[in-house]
Amino acid sequence: MRVLFLTHNHPALQPGGTEAFALGLFRALRDEHGADGLFLAGVTALLRERRPGTLLQAAGDRADEMLVSLDEFDRFYLSQGDVYGLAAIAPMIERLAPDVVHLHHPLLWGMEGIDMLRRAAPRAAMVATLHDYFCICPREGQLLTTDGRRCAGPAQDACRTCLPDRAPGDLALRDLGIRGAFTAFDALVSPSRFLRDRFVAAGWDADRFHILGNAVAAAAPAPHRLPADGRRDRFAVFGNVNRFKGTLVALDASARLTRDGVSHGLAVHGGTAWQSDAFRAEFAAALTAAPDAAHHGAYAAGELAARIAAADWVVVPSIWWENAPLVILEAFRHRRPVICGNAGGMAELVCDGVDGLLAPIGDAAGLSAVLRNAIETPGLWQRLVEGIVAPPDFGAAAAQHLAFYRTLSPVTGRRTEHAIRDSSDPVAA
């Protein structure tokens, strides 16, 4: 089988869950299942300078992983203005003649990129995985209002409140343009039921969605630390440091524990790249106010095991719905219970009282109470560790995706009667 994967970045340039999963899945299809193909990662000059004659550049030492310079992107309409650049790579895709084209994010590629793919690979089954809410939320796909409330989904009046400078026609054109472009796909994949339900509530056809969960690289679990006093009071947050990921909420929760005299440690692992000066100032102030917390900076994927070894718990304090965050799967891979928000894709992955604890989203006081309960409840940490089920690795995800691809006709993309509907259902899987 020949596959073409596309995403909006390459993990070698900037880490991110979507591109990390897409690349891991592509490599597993290639290395463990014999698939042939190409991985194309869209980039801008902020990450890799484009020079004359270098629309395509190598991503590393592999000939089948390439970067595509795509600088003329409109983030509101999800539109790529460099249609000539897109047309320039069409002959390469035609020569590849993929059996499956799998788009992992429309960022940078745009709706015009989807049209190019359909034209360049007319016989391929086309699949898109929706890793977040960009297609239904014009505010960077966050489904958050300007005052920080979680949004159930797009509505004309509500969207105008968040985007007062946009005319009603702009919002309607955006929606129509994205929906029209996505009719080119023969199947849509969602890593969580929650995300699928948000799209269905926004008017997308439920019958087009298939649930295929995320995965992480196979790895030996990092050893648990052995505290002399038996206290499991070391917490860690992993991922990009920004407002949506709830870093400030976690720091506020830590500060509250300190004021209450609860001994603990909170390690924040992640970089602050692309954040505003205002947010960085808030972050610095929050760190100062939380003396039992420390920022350990950005990390490479290979450093995760060493960093998580110092933690008893992994905290995912995101203030938005999330979809299927890889950090939760990474925590389970290393047998760390997870403390996360009680809604969205987070709550779909973590079972309260079985393999982790749920806390009210965006509520520092509520999170602080859960952290204190985690420390002070005898036997809780061990019981939750024993409840953790190892997450699937990329090899297993590749096998599942390969089986799914084979349910699609290479010409029409029509599903066979045995198409996988929901991989979270053991019977269906």
TrEMBL record:
Stretches assigned to the Glycosyltransferase subfamily 4-like N-terminal domain: 81-216
Keywords (A to Z) from UniProt: Transferase
One MF annotation (Gene Ontology) recorded for this entry: glycosyltransferase activity
InterPro entries the UniProt entry points to: Glyco_trans_4-like_N, Glycosyltransferase_grp1
Name by which UniProt lists this protein: Glycosyltransferase family 4 protein
Taxonomic source organism: Neoroseomonas marina
